Amino acid sequence: MKKDIILAGVGGQGIISIATVIGYAAIDMGLHLKQSEVHGMSQRGGDVQSNLRLSDKVIHSDLIPFGQADIIISVEPLESLRYLPMLGPNAWLITSITPFKNIPNYPPIETILDKIRSLPNHVALDAEGMAKDLGSPKSANMVILGAASPFLEIPYEKLQQAIRAIFAKKGTEIIEANLKALQAGRDFKE
Amino acid sequence: MEKQLLLGDEAIAQGALDAGLSGIYAYPGTPSTEITEYVEHSRQARETGVKYSWAANEKTAMEGAIGMSYAGKRAMTCMKHVGLNVAADAFINAAITGANGALVVVAADDPSMHSSQNEQDSRFYGKFALVPIFEPSNQQEAYDMTYDAFAFSEKYKLPVMIRITTRLAHSRAGVARRPALPQRKGNLPEDMRQFVLLPAIARRRYKQLLKTHYDLVAESEKSSYNLYFEGKDKSKGIIACGLAYNYLMENLAGKDVSYPILKISQYPIPRKMIEKICSDCKEILILEDGYPMIEELLRGYLNTGVTIHGRMDGTIPRDGELNPNIVAVGLGFPDTRGPEVPDFMVGRPPSLCAGCPHIDTYVALLETLEQYSKGRVFSDIGCYTLGALAPFEAINSCVDMGASITMAKGAADAGLTPAIAVIGDSTFTHSGITGLLDAVNDKANVKVFILDNGTTAMTGGQKSAATGRIESICAGVGVDPAHIRVIKPLRKNREENVRIINEELAYDGVSVIIPRRECVVELNKKMRAKFAGKSNE
After folding, report:
1. Span B488-517, pLDDT tens digits
2. Subunit contact A35:B173, Cβ cutoff 8 A
3. How confident is the model at residue B261 (pLDDT cuts 50, 70, 90)?
4. Has residue B531 got a pLDDT over 90?
5. How far is A88 from chain B (nearest CA, A)?
6. Alpha-carbon distance B329 to B316, whole Å?
7. What single string gives the DSSP state of each residue in B148-186?
8. Which of A4, A27, A62, A169 best tests the B interface by mutation, with the highest count of B CBs <10 A?
């Protein structure tokens, strides 16, 4: 088993929480893991990505080679496309469609969505809207993770367990909200 | 033993704690910050009374560590590559004094300049100082090497450098720990003149250092971190240093190639291993995540020896960090790429946060400067450097820590008056105070804006060295208290702030203007902690 995952977003959007849940589940399964993060200047509203690598064999490089990622998981549509050169054959792109506009020259959203929809393997969903409908706007990340979950080769229950463990300190309410968000993403059909 | 998921930085910190560290000294700087932060938040450190200190700058940090080493305890100091420039005087001389208790210096380099103004390779500093260097290839080695570095430092009574690069510093992997050792009791140096670098003593110490170097080379040659893999296909030999070794293994996994490989993770360079690979193989590929240090040595000025491929002949790009694809191409393997980035893609540079006090400072400053010609704002290193970008485009320089005040003074001396300096509170205490003294002594017409957000914001909010004491420091240095003005950078105060700045612009002398408002990121952190109540911890 090998899963090379690019997590993408804008600094401050919290892509690391997605990585933390997947990572927890992966370690629980006894997989090897490497997770490269962006710290420093870019965190101030710039583009950020994390390379998350899971494997049942030893992982050497902290960086995923270009053209070999299995999944891009993005919490922002423009950012999902920034890492296309990372994608391998038959790879999937899972992204939120809600733009984060903190630059004056943000391209037209329809152009971006058309490009995303032109990719053979994609899931594009309104994670923010879905999270709001669930009454927990902060759990959009878990909606995205839910949508990506069928492609991770990690049993769904393992992800649920990971959320329970990671959010344990924050109380039952937060755990349930995140589990619901995860399920909503998993159930999403275009 | 169960493995812990640790960043490379955290693995170094945990390795130090388990090796019996007594004190860590640092000034924050990407990608080194998380080492000291880990100790700051470590229960193990708290329970065993390990001292951690956010020092005023890297030089004071280095000297604190040297002092602890003098007193016979195990000390570590951590900094980013350019921080080592600031600490270089202490560092180079610490090789002459030697260590008593272990002295471990971590330099975190930033090839590709993700968060830095250059990509200098700290291995040159280690070589220059004639101290051993460990360069881990992964998180486990980062832990193990740090653990070993302390004993190694005490064995040879020398500082030891650990050199890492951004990708290892900021990447997590499972790390297995070793038994935690107790701290040393402490003892003074056997030779009480060891640390007295009077010329006569320094000459003796330097001869000793040169002699020890042969032992260090012998250590490198038998080090378990330097590995020689025999290979049948001697058409090419590969030398891979530190992290580059991982990129190499990524490419070789599952492939049927058998070039001889030399992995180098401990310096000085293992001479015999280099001799062997160069005599065994027809040509050599050198992979270094930094400057072509070994490549330059082996190539020689006239390049008449063994055939070398690497950064200097274009096999590997001359600048920037390595990655698996660059190494693949260097090996002659096919490159892999997914679909192209669409043409409509635009950059998303970092920017000041919504509600950041610097925004209001720049808005007011720009308004007051409309009456002058452009190009007179000398800035410094911190979040406010982002004022260089649209929509502000407010600053004209960013060179090194503290340079805003001194460059403004130099420019004012050249006739560019009034010259403006923009510096953060933490950068001011790092290296700005001495420059302000220069300006005061020369009565320079400079306007120094000390942007006081109460924290070291860019690196994630570490303690700032002189919170609450900025005005008294300026007055103590000799700035006329009438020209030390504190303003509150808020949109609603714009008019008043513009008026105050204009008053100071009209004054021919040193003015200090302190726009003071808390960093919004830190404020949000505090609010969240407050509302989370006691349920946390």
Report:
1. 999 999 999 999 999 999 999 999 999 999
2. yes
3. very high
4. no
5. 6
6. 8
7. HHHHHHHHHTS-EEEEEEHHHHTEEEEE---PPPPPP--
8. A62
Q: How many Cα atoms are found within 13 Å in the side-chain-facing hemisphere of B463?
A: 13
Task: Decide if B250 and A65 are in contact by the 8 Å CB cutoff.
Answer: yes
Alpha-carbon B140 to chain mean position? 21
Cβ distance B336 to A107 less than 8 Å, yes or no, reads no
Summarised one tens digit per residue, pLDDT across range B131-179 is: 999 999 999 999 999 999 999 999 999 999 999 999 999 999 999 999 9
Q: What's the total number of domains in chain A?
A: 1
Nearest to A60 among B34, B114, B253 (CB): B253
pLDDT in tens, A5-48: 999 999 888 788 899 999 999 999 999 999 998 877 767 789 99
User: Is B460–A85 a contact, with Cβ atoms under 8 angstroms apart?
Assistant: no
Contact call for B535 and A171, based on CB within 8 A: yes
**Of A182, A89, A128, whose CA–CA distance to A9 is shortest?**
A128
Measured between beta carbons, the chain A residues lying within 8 angstroms of B460 are 39
Look up the CATH number of the domain holding residue A114: 3.40.920.10
Min Cα distance B371 → chain A (Å) is 28
Residue among B114, B323, B336 whose CB faces A63 most closely: B323
The token pair that represents B167 in the structure block = 């990708």
Which residue in B has a C-alpha nearest to residue A65's C-alpha? B324
pLDDT digits (tens, 9 = 90+) for A40-72: 776 778 999 999 999 999 999 999 999 999 999
ipTM: 0.95
| Distance (Å, whole) CA B251 – CA B223 | 25
Classify each residue of B490-527 as buried b or exposed e, where b means 16 or more C-beta atoms within 10 Å of its C-beta.
Answer: eeebeeebbebbeebbeeebbbbbbbbbebbbbbeeee
Q: List the domains of chain B with CATH numbers.
A: 4-182+196-221 (3.40.50.970), 227-331 (3.40.50.920), 357-523 (3.40.50.970)
What is the 3-state composition of chain B as percent helix, strand, coil, each rounded to the nearest 5?
40, 15, 40
* B390 interfaces chain A, CB cutoff of 8 Å: yes
Q: What is the distance between the alpha carbons of residues A99 and A45, in angstroms, rounded to a whole number?
A: 13
pLDDT digits (tens, 9 = 90+) for B458-485: 999 999 999 999 999 999 999 999 999 9
Chain A 160-189, residues with CB within 8 Å of chain B CB atoms: 169-171
Residues 54-113 of A with CB under 8 A from B: 57, 59-69, 78-79, 81-82, 84-88, 91, 102-107, 111-112
Q: How far is A170 from chain B (nearest CA, A)?
A: 7
Please provide the DSSP assignment of B190-206 as one string: SSTTTT---HHHHHHHH
* Domain limits for position A68: 2-187
